[in-house]
Structure formats: structure tokens, C-alpha cells
Amino acid sequence: MQSLIAPSILAADFANLQQDVELVNNSQADWFHIDIMDGVFVPNISFGMPVLKAIAKHAKKTLDVHLMIVEPERYIKTFAELGSDILTVHFEACKDLAPTIKAIKAEGMKAGVAINPDSSVSVLEPFIAEIDLVCLMSVHPGFGGQSFIEGTYEKIQQLKALIHKKGAATKIEVDGGVTAANAKKLNNLGADVLVAGSFVFKSEDPSTTIADLKQLSA
Ligand code: DX5
Ligand code: ZN
């Protein structure tokens, strides 16, 4: 099955954001991946609501919003109003995950749950049937441009097995260090969505890079 490609706007040119949003609109990309960081959950601050609002105004594809913030439940309604289609919270950042997932869905969004590279897939077992998307972090969250953590391959297999065991329809997203060197293998293992930031936007021709990733994950 073909994987969806979600370019991460974190690696875009923030001084020419509309240009990069249009680039994604006109490319073979499937989703926009939007990284929101609070400087507390992760040691970096990316951008917040006004920037997402500006992106949403021009974006013509699914907005996949990845919250790397503490107590994300505080902002579920706000991110729905800003136009998020998928809202992903971190397992490690939620006091009570089940009601958070419920609240995301109640606002009409798909519910995503991300786990850090050091968190085991098994922590998701009680929740998996309710989760629309699991985001497997293949780098430590906080920064773009890091190298892919190889242990992610095994986690995809474990997650696939868990989804199958529970009869769930959860999609698997892999986020961090995705390049042409690992896209094919990630697709073969069953990753449904590949997030790619630096590899796309730091390339000479981002549209062609997106098309290449798409082809590799077909
Ligand atoms: C990392 C972010 C990723 C990041 C991916 O904290 O969640 O989405 O933007 O960037 P690359 O593809 O450069 O690793
Ligand atoms: Zn992300």
C-alpha cells in the first residue's frame, strides 16, 4: 500500500511561508505536517497559533498538527478552530490520555498519539482502538534535521501487530529523519504516513523530492 507523504513545515522558509505552502499544495504531497513546540515538553519553541492560522488560510490539504506541548488538552478547541484535521498529542505529555482522545474527536478532528523513541509501543495497548493515528517518533522530538533512529523499524512491526490484535484501524505515521534512504523500507513495513522536513525543504527541488518519496513509498 502506498504511504502518504507529509512535508513538515518546520523546515520551510518562514520568511516565505506562503510560497512553501503553495509548493506543497501543488506537489504530490498528501498532508501538511505542522510541529508546535512549547519549550517545555521539548527544548525548542517552533511557532504557535497565529502562524498556524496563516498556514491554514492557504493550505489546500489535510492539516496534520503535532503538538509537542505539555497539557495539550488545554488547547484542543483552539486547534480545532484553527482548522486542524488531525490533532496529535504526546503520550508522555498527557495526564489522562483517554479523555484527551475523546475531546479531540468531539471537536471533529482525528485523534493522533505520538510516542517518543524511548517509549514502548505497549503503552498504547489500552487506547489503540480509539486512536486514529499513532505517530512513532524516529528522532527525539524538538528539532528537524536529525538522523533516523534505526530502532523505529522494530516499533513499526510491534505497532502493526498490536493494531491487528485489537482489530483497530489506526494509521501508523513515522516522524523524523525520513529520507529517500529509508522511505522504501518504512513503506514495506507498513508505515501509512511518512513525515519529511529537512529532506524535502533543504533539497534543491522540493517538489521533485516529494515526488521521489512518493514513488519510493508506492
Ligand atoms: C521533530 C518534529 C518532526 C520534524 C521532522 O520534533 O516532530 O516533525 O519536523 O523533521 P526532519 O524530517 O527534518 O527530521
Ligand atoms: Zn512532527
Q: How much is the average pLDDT? A: 98
CATH topology: TIM Barrel
| Order of helix and strand elements from N to C terminus | EHEHEHEHEEHEHEHH
Widest β-sheet, arrangement of strands:
1-8-7-6-5-4-3-2
Q: In whole angstroms, how far apart are the ends? A: 7 Å
Q: List how many beta strands DSSP finds.
A: 8
User: So what's the overall shape?
Assistant: globular
Structural class: alpha/beta
**Which ligands, by name, code or SMILES, are bound?**
D-xylitol-5-phosphate, zinc ion
Individual helix count: 8
The stretches of 5 or more residues where confidence is low (pLDDT under 50) are: none
What is the CATH homology-level superfamily? Aldolase class I
* Radius of gyration computed on alpha carbons: 16 Å
Share of helix among residues? 25-40%
How many structurally independent domains? 1
Strand proportion: 15-25%
Tell me the name of the CATH class: Alpha Beta
Largest sheet descriptor: 8 strands, parallel
- What is the chains' assembly state? single chain
* Second rung of CATH, namely the architecture: Alpha-Beta Barrel
Describe the structure.
The chain is an alpha/beta fold. The protein has one domain (4-216): TIM Barrel. 33% of the residues lie in helices and 20% in strands. It has an eight-stranded parallel β-sheet with strand order 1-8-7-6-5-4-3-2. Strand 3 (62-68), helix 3 and strand 4 form a beta-alpha-beta unit. The radius of gyration is 16 Å and the shape is globular. Residues 8, 10-11, 33, 35, 66, 68, 139, 141-146, 175-178, 195-199 line the site of D-xylitol-5-phosphate. D-xylitol-5-phosphate binds at residues 8, 10-11, 33, 35, 66, 68, 139, 141-146, 175-178, 195-199.
